[in-house]
UniProtKB/TrEMBL annotation, chain A:
Gene name tied to this protein: LOC107726491
GO cellular component, one term: Arp2/3 protein complex
Cross-referenced SUPFAM superfamilies: Arp2/3 complex 16 kDa subunit ARPC5
Protein name from the UniProt record: Actin-related protein 2/3 complex subunit 5
Subcellular location: Cytoplasm, Cytoskeleton
GO MF annotation, one: actin binding
UniProt lineage: Eukaryota, Metazoa, Chordata, Craniata, Vertebrata
UniProt xrefs under Pfam families: P16-Arc (PF04699)
InterPro entries: ARPC5, ARPC5_sf
From TrEMBL, chain B:
Protein name: Actin-related protein 2/3 complex subunit
Listed InterPro entries: ARPC1 (IPR017383), WD40/YVTN_repeat-like_dom_sf (IPR015943), WD40_repeat_dom_sf (IPR036322), WD40_rpt (IPR001680)
UniProt key word Magnesium: no
Pfam families referenced in this protein's UniProt entry, alphabetically: WD40
Cellular localization per UniProt: Cytoplasm, Cytoskeleton; Nucleus
GO molecular function: actin filament binding
PROSITE patterns documented for this protein: WD_REPEATS_2, WD_REPEATS_REGION
């Protein structure tokens, strides 16, 4: 008996992994999703075409892929584009997006909040305010309930 | 439109009798209270005590005048009125988690119970044994069933589940009925067959409803979307993302329009255009009277700016009729084809009755 009570490693076992009725999400082919095209977005930023860069960076979101690097790279790229906007242009940027675009933008914004860096939170909060007035709380609900996100 | 506040606790579920003079509701505990309308008052005339857990679903069969209730104690009871009292009959559901919703079939010879055991129990009365027996629909359900609705042909059953899907099953019981005729959802309908499974929306499916003809099914999902699917060779799905909080219950009021309500505390109209297979927002049905804006002194403005970082004078008071989420909608008059009145109950313990004037455009009064 003393042998059994010495270790408490059993407390760290993830019992949900052994549940035979555990809910597993459907696998959808995500191997080919590479995220937005870095070269295209960079060139658009350099040209000063911020609206175009915004549209380009919201293409091909790495939603289904399990590759964490692709997701991180996409998030970094989006942050770069969002930071390049002047505060007064943010509203116009949001207006240029359709419903799905606003939902996707909100997903990237919240992903950005998860890992704050030097100035990112201020920029993201400004974008959040404008995206909220465009998409409403429903947009945020969709970020919270999405099973597969960026 | 009228509003009556029954209790301070949420109304878990409710059901009306055939002539809409009595309402059975659960005041968020183990009992079912039946209230009778007397002029403009509601008097409690019966208390049904049998469940050992919260009652999660009530349905009142209009023709046979039987009530079926289900609860978190994993049981369902069928209540019949004998003289002046309601007598319960236990139904063994063979589930090992709470029951979540229950619905009589249109012919009232069966009822279906959705539960947390990841299955639907379809119960029918066996004459020989004088007992309610049930059959289970298990595959391919992978999580709790939150809501059910029957097709008018008494065989097909729509179920919304926490595995993010709305499905239509066949609940054909050969002991109590004839083989059904082909429908828009398919022609072969053995028991448990999946006739339709939704794709495209994510989020728990809180409410599901067949249209009056049974050719369309609508569901409200927790990702703030409403969707309508039309049966046919290939089912056509149309969904609409909304800017509001998730909707909890949905019902058709004509073949082309639906009313839904949820965490935003007011009912909302949606219109379905079958030519374009598109769903569109029709408007809020609860238009509160604008309260007079009182002027703000400079001091108040500065205080607001200091405390709330905003200069708005909007108070944090809900202007809608219901003061908390609406959890259930039921049709009172007119059926799902030409609904003239519907009723909503919610977490604020109140019940509101809404009148609809159907003209070429829908407006609520």
């Amino acid at each position: 008996m003393s042998k059994n009570t010495v270790s408490d490693r059993f407390r760290k076992v993830d019992v949900d992994e052994y549940d035979e009725n555990k809910f597993v999400d459907e696998e959808e082919g995500g191997e080919n999703q590479l995220g937005p095209d870095e070269a295209e977005v960079d060139s658009l930023i350099r040209q000063g075409n911020r609206m175009g860069a915004l549209q380009a960076v919201l293409k091909n979101p790495p939603i289904n892929t399990k590759n964490q690097n692709v997701k991180d790279r996409a998030e970094g790229l989006v942050l770069k584009v969002l930071s390049s906007f002047k505060s007064t242009d943010i509203e116009k940027g949001v207006q240029s997006l359709d419903k799905n675009g606003v939902d996707l933008l909100m997903k990237y914004i919240y992903k950005g909040f998860e890992q704050p860096s030097e100035n990112s939170s201020t920029v993201l909060l400004q974008w959040h305010e404008k995206a909220l007035s465009a998409g409403g709380v429903g947009c945020i609900v969709r970020v919270l309930t999405a099973r597969k996100t960026v | 439109m009228s509003y009556h506040s029954f209790l301070l606790e949420p109304i878990s579920c409710h059901a009306w009798n055939k002539d809409r003079t009595q309402i059975a509701l659960c005041p968020n505990n183990h009992e079912v209270h039946i209230y009778k309308k007397d002029g403009s008052n509601w008097n409690k005339i019966h208390v049904l005590k049998e469940h050992n857990g919260q009652v999660t679903g009530i349905d009142w069969a209009p023709e046979s005048n039987r009530i079926v209730t289900c609860g978190t104690d994993r049981n369902a009871y069928v209540w019949t009125l004998k003289g002046d009292a309601w007598k319960p009959t236990l139904v063994i559901l063979r589930i090992n988690r709470a029951a979540r919703c229950v619905k009589w079939s249109p012919k009232e010879n069966k009822f279906a119970v959705g539960s947390g055991s990841r299955l639907i129990s379809v119960c029918y009365f066996e004459q020989d044994n004088d007992w309610w027996v049930c059959k289970h629909i298990k595959k391919p359900i992978r999580s709790t069933i939150l809501c059910l609705d029957w097709h008018p042909n008494n065989v097909l059953l729509a179920a919304g589940s926490c595995d993010f899907k709305c499905r239509i099953f066949s609940a054909y019981i050969k002991e109590v009925e004839e083989k059904p005729a082909p429908t828009a959802w398919g022609s072969k309908m053995p028991f448990g067959e999946v006739m339709f499974e939704s794709t495209g929306t994510s989020g728990w499916v809180h409410g599901v409803c067949f249209s009056d003809s049974g050719n369309r099914v609508a569901w409200a999902s927790h990702d703030s979307t409403v969707a309508v699917a039309e049966g046919g060779k290939t089912a056509v799905c149309a969904s609409l993302t909304s800017e509001t909080l998730p909707l909890l219950c949905v019902t058709f009021i004509t073949e082309n329009s639906l009313v839904a309500a949820g965490h935003d505390c007011y009912p909302v109209l949606f219109v379905y255009d079958s030519n374009k297979a598109a769903l569109s927002f029709g408007g809020k049905l609860d238009v509160p009277k604008q309260s007079a804006q009182k002027g703000m002194t400079a001091r108040e403005r500065f205080q607001n700016l200091d405390k709330k970082a905003t200069a708005d004078s909007k108070e944090a008071v809900l202007e809608s009729v219901h003061k908390n989420s609406i959890s259930q909608i039921s049709i009172l008059n007119g059926g799902k084809a030409q609904c003239a009145k519907f009723c909503t109950t919610g977490m604020d313990g109140g019940m509101a009755i809404w009148d609809i004037k159907l003209k070429t455009t829908l407006s609520a009064c």
